[in-house]
Amino acid sequence: xxxxEPVKEPLRGDITVPGDKSIAHRAVILAxxxxxxxxxxxxxxxxxxSRTVKAFRQMGVExxxxxxxxxxxxxxxxxxxxxxxxxxxxxxGTTMRLLSGLLAGRPFRSELDGDSSLRQRPMQRVIDPLxxxxxxxxxxxxxxxxxxxxxxxxxxxINYRTPIASxxxxxxxxxxxxxxxxxxxxxxPLKSRDHTEVMLRGFGAKIxxxxxxxxxxxxxxxxxxxxxxxxxxxxxxxxxxxxxxIPGSDVTIRNVGCNRTxxxxxxxxxxxxxxxxxxxERVEAGEPVADIRVVGGKLKGVDVGGEWAARTIxxxxxxxxxxxxxxxxxxFSDVKELRYKESDRIAAMTEGLRxxxxxxxxxxxxxxxxxxxxxxGTRVRSFGDHRVAMSLAVAGLASDGGVEIDDAACVDIxxxxxxxxxxxxxxx
Length: 428
Hints:
The chain has 2 domains: 2-19 and 230-426, Enolpyruvate transferase domain (UDP-n-acetylglucosamine1-carboxyvinyl-transferase, Chain), CATH 3.65.10.10; 21-228, UDP-n-acetylglucosamine1-carboxyvinyl-transferase, Chain. By secondary structure, it is an alpha/beta fold. The chain has 13 helices and 23 strands. A hairpin with a 2-residue loop joins strand 4 (62-66) and strand 5.
């Protein structure tokens, strides 16, 4: 149980957020299959990233801390050995899906498992293309659900169009394509986040990207690199919304990754009327980075769909909180993918917002939120989902009596220091 008290003054602060989870997963994976030592800086200590690190240790990769860096002693593909036991991915869908692609190409048997939530998340979307490439994958949970038993090796390139824009599916295919004979061509209906493509180039891979199409030839080797991970924009989003929705607030978040395939939350908040400024823009490890300053004011409702889904998928729960306090109506469409996250986030946020006094209409592919509300203090459910818990915590700042979150420990999955940092910008 975690209680969040309403704030009586505008928010103030100059803060940093943990390293980007998505980039961190990829850095650990590519470093583990590269030749030579890699050093990874600013790796988040959340559970999801830890699952990926542990997985490669199980597969024989030497990984250790050296000061501020996580050092990975890569020995190329031959340094990846079969784990003696099933790899436990915990709650991390990224770990399971990306490792599925990597292990599809290794000439041994592997098993990937996870917690009860992960066992309910759809894995058929990676099973199908990897099977076309020649991997043998058995859904032991049935219906494309984990645990996944993988007999890898003997892959060949394919031409494949993903049914949905998914960076995890795309990355799984690319990791398999690295090991396949011939060329793999991949096309997406909409461009998803491109961290894998950026980092593959950084580790020395030859990859051709043309808008929504990617082509890569197999049999490539990678070279160890130093990687400095920027702050996670999906973590920064909670503080962006918190400051934007409370008039008079002035908060700066330092060293945030602002990749064009991930920055939808900035653009949507600006559409809602928020004052957001990017300062000291630069490029680090191929990724655009900036300090983000947000000044609080009056927000208005927006109508969001189409391309925004892929660019903002993780931020919709916290944007729903912004919508609850904005003038007018906000409509989120084309985000059915939210139903297949750590929880059904459309249903979870609908219940949470209704509980605190917001009129919400739930649809199969989104939700309509009637804003301009005075939020009431009460007890809310997180559904064991870290983003739902953090979103409702931010809502509590603007409530009339504070909120109590039933299972706030789930926040540690991605952001162990979240509540401390939230308190920092509230106390000044």
